[in-house]
Amino acid sequence: MNPCMILNRNIKRLAVISDFHGNYPALKAVVSAAERLACEYYLCCGDYLGYYYSSNQVIELIRTLPHTAILGNHDRDFLRLLDGEWQMTDEYKKKYGSSLEIAVKNVAKKNVHWLRSLSPRLEVVIKDRRILLCHGSPWDINEYLYPDMPDQKLSEVYALNYDIVIIGHCHYQYLKKHKRQLILNPGSVGQARDRTGASWALLELDNLTVQLRHVRYDVKEVIKETRRIDPEVPYLTEVLKRGQRNRCLDTNIQSL
Known about the structure:
CATH architecture: 4-Layer Sandwich
Strand content: 15-25%
Structural class: alpha/beta
Number of helices: 9
Oligomer: single chain
Largest sheet: 6 strands, mixed
Strand order of the largest sheet: 1-5-6-7-9-8
Number of domains: 1
CATH class: Alpha Beta
Distance between the termini: 28 Å
Radius of gyration: 17 Å
CATH topology: Purple Acid Phosphatase, chain A, domain 2
């Protein structure tokens, strides 16, 4: 059984955000957009760390917001690294870079304590809407549920009988619906893999309307820092430039 939080607040409009990965400029852009759209609360689906280098600032900003948060796989790896339960291999560094090593030195103790307080899954009840927050899948923090997941997997998620299941991890934004149920992946704030820019979702609880949103931010400084710190991991910069010619500021509104 998943831990449960009941929010006795009259929340109508929420920002759903995930996979920040130490990209502070991207998070700032998303928060600014959410504030302009009068979002009252934030649901955060993990991976505050990993890939890029401003994890402490990312956590600091999230903690200033009215929010509910869960743990991601990179966050769990960071805590295991701190506790001496896991060591970074050369193979890991070639794929993911050195951001977790830097985070060990830079993330404040109060923010480490905040990370330790997070669950990998959490049921949230708001205005009688049952929402499941999970990072990978409802069963595994490391499982990828892509937009083209098999029908059998979709059926397994719907069978959990939540009004909304919110997931992250794959960095692809999508919305699926079945009768009165939603599966939502808001995409990645810090490292979107389906387009340039920062991805997030706006959720309106009264009518279960979801807006899949994207916002531009200046990636140049992030790319410059990444090339300086991890020049041997070109993927970290290449992924930030995907779809760079697109306008990357659009809204795809889907609702039940």
